[in-house]
Design a protein that fits this description.
single chain; alpha+beta; Aminopeptidase; Alpha-Beta Plaits; 8-stranded mixed β-sheet; 4-stranded antiparallel β-sheet; 11 helices
Length: 417
């Protein structure tokens, strides 16, 4: 199990931040660097069919160690880290036997990880934590998942007494910028179902996520000198403000939780002649999702009637859908993960994803893919950390899931045949 930590500490030092402005796959050279390193490592530990394609999707196979017919499972994590904070020069530190007090990440810059602001730290008193130096993210999302999958495969190779069917693994680029499933070859992967190892704290198990859309609202005004502007000027900034005021004030991220959806204005920029707003729209319920999109259209139509046709232009596009619709018919794969957690001494925490994962889009491409914890906290920021014990439990869980799939093979065959 100590290898999971060694691997993780190696991987996070490679900067794999994705870049939304770059349209190639992958969007950053660091992802190639990590993928090539992992390819060599997978070959060295004994995996077969190790293949890195031209778009930086890395796949490999752990062959079955039984002649029984077992549906093929996949385990998937992503290579990139979030562009929201730098991943250059990651310098992880291990806090041994955490005492429950403030952790000084960077004395010079007075950057402190404190249980006053992150009370869940108190859950890990006496444990070893991997933290940042306060100047970068850590990269547990999702290099923790990569380290856990590889370590679990190595464990299964060394413990041939644990029966398992064929296992496929994949590491994908650019998940953080929403492209991880774009060029994923489901047919080549060849699994009946999979799990992304890309969740948060220990125990998290997810098979529901938002339905998602993005919307761009462009508002066209008319500028004229203020001295003669009466009944002539059309200020696009004020019309944009009016558009925002017509959205439900309580349906924003800061007012919602659990299964509640929202409208989220990401950016607002403009001048009198033209203003642009960028929104994301989220809801778990497909009907409510439709209602939200309909409201955006109704506001657009109303303002065009009020200020003249062509004043407001709405461009809206669906991004992904709730994978629950695809998971429920094969929910046995969630039940297996839940049982594996209990057998591994982990309390399952089945919660909806207030966001999306590669698994959501893969589920709609024909590969049902729930999400399992990595073990980390505070992703995408300088206060990110991960307890070592959580990483070790994730390795144990992947092994146990693989074993249970063998035990449940007959039930699974009924579902996937």
């Amino acid at each position: 199990m100590e290898r999971v930590v060694e691997r993780f500490l190696e991987y996070v030092r490679i900067n794999t931040q994705s870049n939304e402005e770059v349209k190639t796959s992958p969007s950053s050279q660091g992802q190639w660097e990590l993928a090539k390193k992992l390819k060599k490592e997978l070959e060295e530990i004994g995996l077969e069919d190790v293949f890195l394609d031209e778009n930086c999707y890395l796949m490999a196979t752990l062959p079955p160690n039984t002649k029984d017919d077992v549906p093929v499972v996949g385990f998937i994590s992503h290579l990139d880290t979030s562009p929201s904070i730098t991943g250059e020069g990651v310098n992880p530190k291990i806090v041994r036997n955490y005492n429950g007090e403030d952790i000084v990440l960077n004395k010079e810059k007075n950057i402190i990880l404190s249980p006053k602001f992150y009370p869940e730290l108190k859950n890990y008193i006496g444990e070893d934590l991997i933290v940042t130096d306060g100047t970068t993210l850590l990269g547990a999302d999702d290099k923790g998942g990569i380290a856990e999958i590889i370590t679990a495969m190595e464990y299964l190779i060394k413990h041939d007494e644990i029966p398992h069917g064929k296992i496929r693994i994949a590491f994908t680029p650019d998940e953080e910028i929403g492209r991880g499933a774009n060029l994923f070859d489901v047919k080549r992967f060849g699994a009946h179902f999979a799990y992304t190892i890309d969740g948060g704290p220990i125990g998290v198990l997810q098979y529901e996520n938002f339905n998602a859309a993005k919307a761009i609202v462009e508002i066209f005004g008319l500028n004229i000198h203020p001295k003669e502007a009466k009944n002539k000027m059309k200020n696009s900034i004020l019309i944009a403000k009016e558009f925002l005021s017509m959205l439900p004030a309580h349906e924003t991220p800061s007012h919602t939780e659990g299964y509640e959806g929202f409208f989220h204005v990401i950016s607002f920029s403009g001048e009198v002649e033209k203003t642009r707003l960028y929104f994301i729209i989220r809801d778990f319920d497909r009907k409510e999702f439709g209602r939200k999109k309909k409201l955006m259209k109704e506001i657009t139509n109303f303002l065009n009637i009020k200020y003249g046709e062509g004043t407001v232009k709405l461009s809206m596009e669906d991004q992904y859908y709730n994978m629950k619709e695809k998971i429920l018919p094969v929910k046995v794969i969630v039940d297996i993960a839940e049982k594996a957690m209990k057998l591994s001494g982990i309390k399952p925490n089945i919660v909806p994803i207030r966001g999306g994962t590669d698994g959501a889009r893969l589920s709609y491409k024909g590969l049902p893919t729930p999400n399992i914890f990595v073990g980390g906290h505070n992703y995408h920021g300088r206060f990110e950390y991960i307890p070592i014990s959580s990483m070790e439990k994730a390795v144990e869980l992947i092994v146990k899931v693989s074993e249970l799939i063998y035990e449940k093979r007959d039930e699974l065959k009924k579902v996937f045949n």
